[in-house]
């Protein structure tokens, strides 16, 4: 088995390694394939074809798995990049749920409002940060335009 960090072998190297492994194994077949009956020859060919199909399917599963791992890695990188932008941007990033409760905001917003996200998460944004006389008007506009 190869190390995951090793570069993939080219097909010629794979074939050579397979040949070497086959030579090391004791094959219990007659010395001369002419000694095989037609039925034994058909069974042997059938077994070889089945093994080939099995290996091709295993290879496809490995390729699919590698593709999925690469996609997950790319998604993780994109997520990390987005998170770093949110954390460092000198702009207000505020996320509210459909009722107007605070889901998230960035560190810059924390500096502006004087509260950490953990202190106000889940609280009604409008009741907490909008002047009482404007609260209902602003909130009604927000709720009408989700």
State the domain count: 2
Helices and strands: which structural class? mainly alpha
Rg, rounded, reads 32 Å
Helix content: 55-70%
Distance between the termini: 55 Å
Low-pLDDT regions: none
Strand count, sense and closure of the main sheet?
Answer: 2 strands, antiparallel
Percent of sequence in beta strands: under 5%
Strand ordering within the main sheet: 1-2
Q: List how many beta strands DSSP finds.
A: 2
Q: What is the overall silhouette?
A: rod-shaped
Topology as a string of helices (H) and strands (E): HHEEHHHH
Mean pLDDT: 83
- Assembly classification: single chain
- How many helical stretches? 6
Give descriptors for this structure.
146 residues
Question: Please, could you describe this protein's structure?
Answer:
The protein is rod-shaped and about 100 Å long. The mean pLDDT is 83. The chain is 64% helix and 5% strand. The chain folds into 2 domains: 37-88; 94-144. A two-stranded antiparallel sheet has the order 1-2. By secondary structure, the protein is mostly helical. The chain has 6 helices and 2 strands.
